[in-house]
UniProtKB/TrEMBL annotation, chain A:
<dbReference type="Pfam" id="PF00400">
    <property type="entry name" value="WD40"/>
</dbReference>
<keyword id="KW-0687">Ribonucleoprotein</keyword>
<keyword id="KW-0539">Nucleus</keyword>
<dbReference type="GO" id="GO:0000462">
    <property type="term" value="P:maturation of SSU-rRNA from tricistronic rRNA transcript (SSU-rRNA, 5.8S rRNA, LSU-rRNA)"/>
</dbReference>
<dbReference type="InterPro" id="IPR001680">
    <property type="entry name" value="WD40_rpt"/>
</dbReference>
<protein>
    <submittedName>
        <fullName>Ddb1-and cul4-associated factor</fullName>
    </submittedName>
</protein>
<dbReference type="InterPro" id="IPR007287">
    <property type="entry name" value="Sof1"/>
</dbReference>
<feature type="repeat" description="WD">
    <location>
        <begin position="279"/>
        <end position="320"/>
    </location>
</feature>
<dbReference type="Pfam" id="PF04158">
    <property type="entry name" value="Sof1"/>
</dbReference>
TrEMBL record, chain B:
<dbReference type="Pfam" id="PF08149">
    <property type="entry name" value="BING4CT"/>
</dbReference>
<feature type="domain" description="BING4 C-terminal">
    <location>
        <begin position="390"/>
        <end position="469"/>
    </location>
</feature>
<dbReference type="GO" id="GO:0000462">
    <property type="term" value="P:maturation of SSU-rRNA from tricistronic rRNA transcript (SSU-rRNA, 5.8S rRNA, LSU-rRNA)"/>
</dbReference>
<feature type="compositionally biased region" description="Basic and acidic residues">
    <location>
        <begin position="486"/>
        <end position="497"/>
    </location>
</feature>
<feature type="region of interest" description="Disordered">
    <location>
        <begin position="486"/>
        <end position="520"/>
    </location>
</feature>
<dbReference type="InterPro" id="IPR015943">
    <property type="entry name" value="WD40/YVTN_repeat-like_dom_sf"/>
</dbReference>
<keyword id="KW-0539">Nucleus</keyword>
<dbReference type="Pfam" id="PF00400">
    <property type="entry name" value="WD40"/>
</dbReference>
<feature type="compositionally biased region" description="Basic residues">
    <location>
        <begin position="498"/>
        <end position="520"/>
    </location>
</feature>
Length: 476, 567
């Protein structure tokens, strides 16, 4: 008879002294690991809950502007330089590392309409009233004397937007109904484009096809220009006007526009007849957007006082940021490393947020990093389970009630507008025949207003007003 | 297909492929199949020719690719989704293959008892003979404790097999460290001890005493008295759910969450006294053996038993379930041990004993131990087929066996009997390769603490105890209409108004003399009342008119300016 029994020597299974590595023995037999799926699910649920627990996205505010912040820009060469322009004409340069203002100047008489950093990173351009100014960009310089502009370009019309060429010494501005291309060395624009008869609000150079320009205007159009051809290329007309435009830095064929109708539209520049995707969630006009350097997501700021982050292929936002005191958001930016979001709003403050709400800042030990990776994988695997999805999707919104009202109002107005549209077309035709018809339009406006008042028992929401007037103004 | 063929292992692989073929015919579209006859419907791995590799691939498919049946990805039209699912599936299959490969690297082999001659019978080998032939360390496992006064003894092993909990019916409780062969703590409770169980680790244990269940720590300190568990007979602890279950003389099964202290569920079994309780390690369902010969299966989320099966013609004295949840062995006072297939709930075969078996257990590697009278027999390969002779046996003359429990991860069977405890060596009983992250017999204090925290974080909700634990995280394949019906029913139940609690009719003091007189005066109509009533009606009328006028003027005020001319 042959006998063998299990006999384990303790020394082979335990470490000799404290400094040794802990011995781990694995056996992957499923019989030894009961409830593996259920336990994994529980872990995913815990990870999702922890995510919510640590979701504290607000990092800090940059305080100093005396008026609402209207535009901002980041250097493509430097992570810490951040430029902002306010409604009172002041331009400030911030050091994001120490969160301090390092340079400031009253650059323009009215609003600072646009800022853009030259590709070298040494200078930047500001545009406002009827001038474009070039300034030296230097974070370390702490001289208190009033700085002077390096160059100034004058124009006869108001300039509303500026974007610098990605490589050459060119920059483009929007001047009333025209898009102008300027050379650093010339005092007059070298090229001028126009298509349509309304004011242009935003001009952007394509990051890959460097002679391609896109603009949005109040004629509801998105227009593409080619500077080599010297003519406009294509045009898409949307339902309402677009406030801002941004090219996807990783897929430069695509661009996204922020529209007044609370949505964002992603277009493929080859197919302008139809938007690739509509990004919905805002309940106010979207004022600005900026892509992450990875091109995977973009951040938007809106008139509804919230900042949202969208995946570039997602129709709904994955994150919404708001604070009690943050007013209408006019400019947003993704930091150069894609980890932070910078916003400027009407309440004169600049705010720094994390791009991932529950992201842990600072150095992580490898073990913690591994654990986070594992949790990330688990969350992804179980994201469709109802409980996990519910927790992951939940957002606390203090002004939820307000948003809901605005949302329902939006729906209602859309309905009325649709109803009125057919009637208006008739009126429009009659208007050409007899100018008195215009009064009917005004009456119908009053009707809409009172209808809503009676419905809600309150005065019209600002956004709603804007919405209706826009629809009717061209008709009147 | 006979139930014996459904076993995993050599013939299990065959049955798996059978099952997958069956699935194909039901799920696949027959017309499509004819059209694309060449496409293999099952995504099999193309393995190289060597028999070893083929065997490994087969094993990976059978053992590790849980629920990865034939895929229907090729039917999808969404390209992006299709490629993503394909990638995921590939990853799963690779992981399964890796796991199968890992098996070869396991360091230890299981114990065995091999006969050399034809007349060599393993059951003839006594423990004394065995002791002479095994290594020095194993010889330490042959021992007995003579405790003739406070018996009979019942026992429980900690989950990693290191600590032993011994309880004498007369109130003697001892915690023994089996690795060091050392008594860590001894208690004399002076009340009957009916059953005991370790909680999640050796740090705490529960004792079913005369009136209630008590919790103690390893220092012998009484931590809690669970007054919800009245007159308990048997205990079971579900380690992944942190649930302590007890069943008593009245037949109430109670689940207590030991991490939160909440009584999770109380189920009335309605089957009277219960003498056997055992958990199915695969799905955490509790099996109760009743005096009527019925075995019933319970989960805390159901008020009734999930399954109840008539197993014996007499009280059920013991239940044991193998660790993969396939076979159940039940012992009855009718002198029989029956083996059941838990997927079909059918009897496979039975063993008859001269004396009624008192306790029964199945080891990690599937050995069946039966204690009857003062004898213990262990049977090998006795679950899938009927074994014809015992594997090992042992007698304890003059002392009836009370409880048998195999020690996890060791070749040891612990026997509690009338006069003490016997440790018996059974080669090939324990799992040779433990997983340190699951149950580690050589756990340090720090590891134990960490495992405790992780265990609590991964605690499973009591509602997740079902007959098929794999349904969690899987796709619900019920037809759409059925699911919708269920959803509607749930919604309806939610909307149903809660019946208001009927107020108790308090009669006390109602018939007092003063109250009676007052009541008599209540409904008397005289002149005074009539005048009062008239006055009240007049006042109401005036008030109504006044309000009507007011509301009209208010409406005009409130209307927007443009609409005022309509009023």
């Amino acid at each position: 008879m042959k006998i063998k029994t299990l006999s384990r020597c303790e020394e082979t299974f335990t470490r000799e002294c404290k400094g040794d590595v802990v011995k781990v023995f694995r056996n992957l037999d499923p019989a030894l690991h009961p409830f593996d799926k259920a336990r994994e699910y529980t872990r995913a649920l815990q990870a999702t809950k922890l995510d919510k627990l640590f979701a504290k996205p607000f990092i800090g505010a940059l305080d100093g502007h005396a008026d609402g912040v209207f535009c901002s820009a980041l250097s493509k060469r430097n992570l810490v330089q951040f430029l902002t322009g306010a409604c009172d004409g002041e331009v400030r340069v911030w050091d994001l590392n120490v969160r301090k203002c390092v340079w400031r100047a009253y650059a323009h008489a009215g609003f600072v309409r646009g800022l853009s950093v030259a590709p070298g990173g040494g200078t930047f351009f500001s545009c406002g009233d009827k001038t474009v100014k070039q300034w030296t960009l230097c974070v370390a310089d702490d001289s208190r004397q009033e700085p002077a502009a390096l160059n100034t370009w004058l124009h006869s019309e108001t300039l509303t937007s500026i974007d610098h060429h990605w490589r050459n010494a060119h920059f483009a501005t929007a001047a009333d109904t025209r898009v102008l291309v300027w050379d650093h060395a010339r005092s007059n624009p070298v090229q001028s484009f126009s298509w349509g008869c309304d004011a242009i609000s935003c001009v952007r150079y394509n990051p890959a096809e460097r002679s391609l320009l896109a603009s949005t205007g109040s004629d509801r159009a998105v227009t593409l220009f080619d500077t080599r051809e010297g003519a406009a290329m294509r045009k898409a007309v949307l339902v309402m006007r677009s406030n801002a435009l941004a090219w996807n830095p990783q897929e430069p064929l695509n661009f996204t526009v922020a529209s007044e109708d609370h949505n964002l539209y992603t277009f493929d520049l080859r197919k302008l007849d139809q938007a690739k995707l509509i990004h919905k969630d805002h309940v106010g006009a979207v004022m600005d957007l900026a892509f992450s350097p990875t091109g995977q997501e973009f951040v938007t700021g809106s008139y509804d006082r919230t900042v949202r982050i969208f995946g570039h292929r997602e129709g709904r936002s994955r994150e919404v940021y708001h604070t009690k005191r943050m007013q209408r958001v006019f400019c947003v930016n993704f930091s150069g490393d894609g980890r932070f979001v910078l916003t400027g709003s009407d309440d004169t403050n600049l705010r720094i947020w994390k791009a991932e709400a529950s992201q842990q800042l600072g150095v992580k030990v490898p073990r913690a990093e591994k654990k986070l990776e594992y949790e990330e994988a688990l969350k992804k695997r179980y994201q469709h389970m109802p409980e996990v999805r519910r927790i992951a999707k939940h957002r606390h919104r203090a002004n939820d009630a307000k948003l809901k009202i605005a949302g329902s109002m939006q729906e209602k107005i859309a309905k009325i507008v649709n109803l009125c549209q057919s009637a208006n077309r008739r009126l429009w035709r009659r208007f050409h025949r007899c100018p008195r018809a215009a009064t009917h339009v005004v009456y119908s406006l009053i009707f809409v207003k009172h209808y809503i008042e009676l419905e809600r028992g309150m005065s019209l929401h600002y956004i709603a007003l804007e919405h209706i007037f826009f629809k009717f103004v061209p008709i009147c | 297909m006979s139930p014996t063929n459904r076993k995993r292992g050599n013939d299990g692989s065959k049955s798996h492929s059978d099952a997958s073929c069956k699935l194909d015919t039901t799920m696949g579209d027959p017309t499509e199949k004819q059209g694309k006859g060449k496409r293999p419907l099952v995504n099999t791995y193309q393995s190289a020719g060597t028999p070893l590799e083929r065997q490994r691939d087969e094993k990976s498919r059978v053992l590790y690719e849980n629920g990865l049946g034939p895929s229907s990805i090729h039917k999808l039209t969404d390209k992006r989704l299709k490629s993503r699912l394909k990638r995921t599936e590939k990853r799963y299959r690779e992981a399964a293959l890796e796991a199968a490969r890992f098996d070869m690297l396991l360091p230890h082999e299981a114990g065995y008892l091999e006969q050399e001659g034809l007349l060599d019978q393993s059951w003839k080998l006594t423990q004394r003979d065995m002791k002479r032939h095994v290594d020095l360390q194993t010889t330490n496992q042959f021992f007995h404790l003579d405790l003739p006064v406070l018996g009979p003894y019942t026992l429980d092993w900690a989950r990693n097999g290191r600590h032993l909990l011994l309880g004498g019916r007369q109130g003697h409780v001892a915690v023994i460290d089996s690795l060091r062969t050392d008594v860590t703590r001894e208690l004399h409770l002076r009340t009957p001890v009916r059953d005991l169980a370790f909680l999640h680790n050796e740090g705490m244990f529960a004792v079913a005493q005369k009136k209630y269940v008590y919790l103690y720590d390893n220092q012998g300190l009484e931590l809690h008295c669970l007054r919800g568990h009245i007159d308990p007979n048997r205990l079971a602890f579900l380690p992944y759910h942190y649930l302590l279950a007890s069943v008593g003389r009245a037949g109430w099964l109670k689940y207590q969450d030991v991490s939160t202290g909440k009584l999770v569920a109380e189920c009335n079994t309605r089957k009277g006294v219960c003498l056997a309780i055992r958990q199915n390690p695969f799905n955490a369902v509790l099996h109760l053996g009743h005096a009527s010969g019925v075995v019933s299966l319970w989960s805390p989320s159901m008020g009734q038993s999930l399954v109840s099966m008539l197993c014996h013609r007499g009280p059920v004295s013991g239940i044991a379930i193998d660790r993969e949840g396939r076979y159940m062995a039940s012992a009855g006072m009718d002198g029989e041990v029956k083996v059941w297939d838990l997927r079909l709930y059918k009897q496979l075969h039975h063993y008859t004993f001269t004396t009624a078996p008192s306790s029964i257990d199945i080891s990690q590697r599937g050995l069946l131990a039966v204690g009857f009278g003062c004898h213990v027999t262990v049977w090998k390969d006795a679950l899938a087929q009927k074994a014809h002779s015992p594997y090992v046996r042992h007698d304890i003359p003059g002392n009836a066996v009370d409880t048998l429990r195999f020690r996890p991860f060791e070749d040891v069977l612990g026997i509690g009997h009338k006069g003490g405890y016997v440790s018996m060596v059974v080669p090939g009983a324990g799992e040779p390769n433990f997983d340190s992250l699951e149950a580690n017999p050589f756990q340090s204090r720090k590891q134990r603490r960490e495992a405790e925290v992780h265990g609590l974080l991964d605690k499973l909700a009591p509602e997740t105890i079902t007959l098929d634990p794999r349904s969690i995280g899987a796709v619900d394949r019920q037809p759409d209409e059925l699911m919708k019906e269920q959803r509607d029913m749930m919604g309806e139940a939610d909307r149903r108004p809660v019946k208001p609690k009927k107020e108790k009719n308090r009669m006390r003091g109602k018939n007092k003399l003063g109250k009676k007189l007052k009541r008599k005066q209540m409904n008397v109509v005289d002149e005074k009342t009539l005048i009062l009533k008239q006055k009240l009606a007049d006042a109401r009328k005036v008030d109504k008119e006044k309000r009507a006028v007011e509301s009209r003027s208010e409406q005009v005020d409130r209307a927007p300016r443009a609409l005022k001319r309509f009023f």
